[in-house]
Amino acid sequence: MIRNESEYQKTLTRQAEEKKRLEEHRARLEGMGLNEDELKRALDPLRSFHLQLEEEVQSYERLKRGDLGELSNLHGLGSMLIALRIARGFTQRELARRLEVHESQVSRDERNEYHGITVDRASRVLDAMGVELRSFFEEPVLPEASGGEGAESRVVNT
């Protein structure tokens, strides 16, 4: 996952280098007289890496546009906190300043995708970014409401 503008720029450079390398390798292999199946087998690992870089770039660009996706049952909360920082346009340094911690703490937290973060700490990070998280329960919450006559789906805001 690309976490900042510097990594984004490096990935763009690497992506361009890998594309050139792939084209040069293909030309060499074609010069050796390989058929299409042989070319495919030889080039697939390089294509795979190039596609991975492309996917990371597109993902970062989506985050910069604010396209964060959804969070379900708090799965992926750490990744979502990183995505929010990127979407809000904060650097790790700026978030650290707002949290009143050292930048290395934010960097370490993000590298570990906030593994084991407490609800209180997640709330502090959200507050520091000026973001409010709202959650609600979908589906019937009460067991007797899950089936039978007259059962209704309820939404409970938290």
Automatic annotation (TrEMBL):
Enumerate the UniProt keywords alphabetically.
Answer: Coiled coil
Q: Which residues form a coiled coil?
A: 5-32
Which InterPro entries does the entry link to?
Cro/C1-type_HTH, Lambda_DNA-bd_dom_sf
Q: Which domain of life is it from?
A: Bacteria
Single Gene Ontology MF annotation: DNA binding
Entry keyword annotation includes Coiled coil: yes
- Domain HTH cro/C1-type: start-end pairs: 81-136
Q: What is this protein called?
A: Helix-turn-helix transcriptional regulator
Q: What is the lineage of its organism?
A: Bacteria, Deltaproteobacteria, Bradymonadales, Lujinxingiaceae, Lujinxingia
